[in-house]
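Minutes, project check-in
Item: structure for the 574-residue chain
Input as provided by the requester:
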Amino acid sequence: MAIHRRRHHHHNTHNRFRYLIPAISVISAAILILYGFISLLAPSPDHPHHLVRRKTSDDDSLLVHSLFKVPISGGMGNDRSLWNTRMSKFYFGCSNASNKFPKVETVTYPNRYLLIATSGGLNQQRTGITDAVVAARILNATLVVPKLDQKSFWKDASTFSEIFDVEWFISHLSRDVKVIKELPKKGGKIWTPYNMRVPRKCNERCYQIRVLPVLLKKHAVQLSKFDYRLSNKLETDLQKLRCRVNYHALRFTDPINKMGQKLVNQMRKMGKHYVALHLRFEPDMLAFSGCYYGGGEKERKELGKIRKRWKTLHSNNPDKERRQGRCPLTPEEVGLMLRALGYSKDVHLYVASGEVYGGDDTLAPLRALFPNIHSKDTIAPKEELEPFSAFSSRMAALDFIVCDESDVFVTNNNGNMAKILAGRRRYFGHKPTIRPNAKKLYRLFLNRENTTWEEFSSRVRTHQRGFMGEPKEVRPGRGEFHENPATCICEDPEAKSKLESLPRKFGKNNLIDPTDESLVPDQDTENESEPLDQDQDEDDDLIGPQFQHLVNDTSLDDDPLISELPELEELLSD
């Protein structure tokens, strides 16, 4: 009987499984069909803002539906107006000396030698080298090839001749300033120059009063920490000399130039145009700015710990910093700005940046908007970069070349690399250089969840008028000369008459065709072109207007913040 009951039980179990398996199959098929249907209705990954996370506290949040949807394709990547400034054909760089500028042989006195020691990263040092040539001319002295800063935050032991072509530098300036490689010996012995420092933004008279008497007595003077030691306002021939140094005499060495051109060629192979982005979203930069990006207690602790390095920094209100346009845009916000301006998702982006705070997670929204993101590390074999990788200035030089050669350059801060490239791109044809109007864009980003894409993109284009690298966006004499070399930019004789005779209007959606000569700058552009520093003194922009309120001094030599940690301005410089 027991055996019979076991067999009967086994038979019943078998029957149940026989009907259960088809039932499971039917249910599974139904689930798969339902999943496929939901997938069709779900937003594309290219719509990262279809659902937005509205912050309610650091720990909890609520998903809400939004009107804001980034188009899957969208943009006008091949539109000529995106890759040219509309009035650039009427302007050109001009830096030749006038007939009134005496020849070097007639103004250089014997036994007068000027040496300088630069400060900061590559681009801050570049400003020092440029100004040193002009200072030597003011003092009628022979310039000794400048010493590069080897002890700063950047810790690069490179010499001048390892970064720049020293022979070209000397020969190209031979009609303006006598330059020698090293100080001659004095009585057969090594000559130690007298060391001194000049105030920031020192003009011609300042050098003649402060430095010349010492030079006449000591015959060899070294100016230390030589950065921003020359006024923005000099007479025309000296300003043009500045341009000849910066844009013609300072040329990278052959190895750097060749590697830089390889990177440029790689970017060109990927598409007809490319955009270079100087992101500046490193932990140190964010910590110093005092801005908050929604990362909760973790972000506050991490950046707060770094911020303690600057003990004299006062605490600030992160919301106020954002409202005032003093915070770098997030990578996502930069991407949204570019898409709104008309750049399509298939555009190739070259990102010049150090360590990005948050790493790949922070870059992910930018990558969703622009999948084709590159850096020198991704487009060049490791072995080709190896000769440069141990030297921060040489690696910065490679980024400089790729950004300089880009069709569009986007800067996310106002450090020295951004300033020098902006000025250089103005001088060589006004290639588009986009500076985010952070003060206006802040409100737009804040309320974007209640805005349609069409309205958002239209308002971005409106806010960015005067921030796109067009001629005369910035008034002559305004800001740093290296950023706005107005003295060295000449106007086509026909340009002014053409502009004055044309009707003043904008094209549809503010996207300007540079070939349409009926389009001229908006009347409000000048008023909006410098929202970050409109209340500042014209020369008061050493480390960028978004950080001036933290330093609050035009002469930073005696600032306790600077003297406590000199790396502050070095950190912000490039």
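Outcome recorded: The longest strand covers residues 51-55.
No further action items on this chain.
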